[in-house]
Amino acid sequence: MVKGRMLQGARAMAEMTALCRPKVISAYPITPQTLIVEELSQIVADGDLEAEFINVEGEHSAASVVLGAMAAGVRVFTCSSSQGLLLMSEVIFNIAGMRLPVVMICVNRSVSAPLNIWNDHQDSVIMRDSGWIQLYAENNQETCDLLLQAHKIGEDHRVMLPVMVCCDGYLLPHAYEIVDLPSQEEVDAFLPPYDPIYKLDVDNPTTMGAYADPEKYMETRYMLQETMKKSLPIIEEVARDFSSTFGRTSHGLFEKYRVDDASTVVVAMGSMAGTIKDVVDELRDQGEKVGILKLICYRPFPKEALYEALSGAENIVVMEKCISLGASGPVATDMRSVFQGRPATPRISGFVIGLGGRDVTLDDIKLAIGKAQQQLEDADFIGLKEDLELEGINA
Amino acid sequence: MKITLGTVTHPGGSRVNKTGSWRTTNKPRFLHQGCVACDVCALTCPEGCIFGTGQNTYYANEDYCKGCGICANVCPVHDIEMIPEAGEDG
Lengths: 395, 90
Fold this sequence. Notes:
The structure holds two protein chains of two kinds.
Chain A: E1 5-8, H1 9-19, E2 24-26, H2 34-45, E3 52-54, H3 59-71, E4 76-80, H4 82-97, E5 103-108, H5 122-126, E6 133-136, H6 140-155, E7 163-168, E8 176-179, H7 184-190, E9 207-208, H8 217-246, E10 254-257, E11 264-268, H9 272-285, E12 290-295, E13 297-299, H10 303-310, E14 315-320, H11 330-339, E15 347-352, H12 362-374, E16 380-381
Parallel strand pairs in A: 2-3, 2-4, 4-5, 5-7, 6-7, 11-12, 11-14, 14-15, 15-16
Antiparallel strand pairs in A: 1-8, 6-13, 10-12
Chain B: E1 8-9, E2 26-30, H1 40-44, E3 50-51, E4 59-60, H2 70-74, E5 80-84
Antiparallel strand pairs in B: 2-5, 3-4
C-alpha cells in the first residue's frame, strides 16, 4: 500500500511548514506562491499552529518581518516568487549577512518583462550570490522533505545560514500528488527547537549587522564563503539522518540516476529532472550510456563531489531554466569551473530550456542530448518557435 | 578583535570604528577665549563627540569628528573656528 495522502502540493508544503513549528510567518501573496500562504494563514486562523501570521503590504516587509522575528530568537517562515523575491532581494542579502537561518520556499517563476507567471528558475538563480543555501526539488514529496531538512541545516550552529527551498511554479504546488508527511512527534524528534546563538534581548541589548568599515567588511564575506563550503558535509549529514529516520532516501547534494557508467550525463535542477529520467530510460533501452545528475544543492556549489561523480563522463549536458543574459547559463558556467585545470576534461554543453513555462518535452531533451554529443553548445535555446518573426533578429 | 556571526555588537561597540578618518578638509579649533559654557556645540554635534565641563574646556574628539562645522556655526560667541585639517599652516 502506498503511504501518504493525495494532496495538492501547496497544501502539503503548508502542512510540512506547520509541522516545523515556526513562531512567525509573514508573506505577501504572489502567483504561483499564493496557495501556500493561504493554506498557512488558514492553519494559523484555525488554531492548528501556534504562530503569529503577520500580514504586510509587500515582500520587502514580509522579508523584514521574518528577519526581525528570527533576530528576536524564533523560527520563521516566508515564501515568495519572481517579482516578489526580487522586491525582497535587499533583505535577502541582509538575512544572510546577519546569519539568521530563515527558511523560505521560492515557488519558481519567470521574471518580468514581459509579464509571465509561469515557471522557470530565473528568480531564485539571481539570488545565488546572496549567501543563502539553495535546494531545488523535483516533486512535492522532495519539496516537503527538503523543507524539514532546511531548518535543521540552517539552524545548525556550524552553519547559521538561511535556506531557500525552490520548487517549480504550477508544476508542483498546483499539482496533486501522494505525499507522505511525518507526524508531529517524528518532526519534533528530528528537529529540535531553534537555539539562537545571538538574539535581540532588552536585558542584553545588541546590534546585528550594523556597520563594518573597510577594515572588517571583507572578513564578514570570507566568513560566509568559508561557512558555505563547510556546510556541504552538513547538508549530506542531515540528508543521511533524514533518510534513516524516515525510511525514504533524501539525496543530499545531488541525485545520480544511471550516472556511474554513463558517457553522457545530463545535469538539471527541479521538476524537469523527472522528465529527463524518462528520456534516460528510453535511451538506455536503445543501448546509449546516458544518465542524469539532478542537482539539488546549487548553493553551496558542491564542486568536489561533482568532480568525483562526473569525471568519468565524456559529455556533460547542462539543461537549465535560466540565463545570465549576455553570457551563458549560470549552472553551465559553474559546471565548467568544476573541471577547469583538472585531469578530467569532459565537454560541457549548456542549453536554455523551458523559460516562462514553455513545456520541456521528451523530444526537446533528446534534441539537446543529440546536439551535445555532436559538438560543444553554449547557451543554446531549445524549443524556440521557428515560425515567429523576431524584430531585430530575423525580421 | 573578534568578528561575531552576523557582526553582532553590544552598546558602545561601535567606538572601535574611528570614523574621524572620514574627515577631509577642515576640523574645529576651540579658541577657549570667550566660551560661556552654553553647551550648544556639544548638543548640536551630530556625532556627539564634543565634550566640556565648564567655560573654555570644550574640545572635539578627533577620532570621530567629521569636520562638518556645525559647532563653529552655532557658537553664539564665535569661540570656535574651522581650520585646515593639516593645521593652520596646511
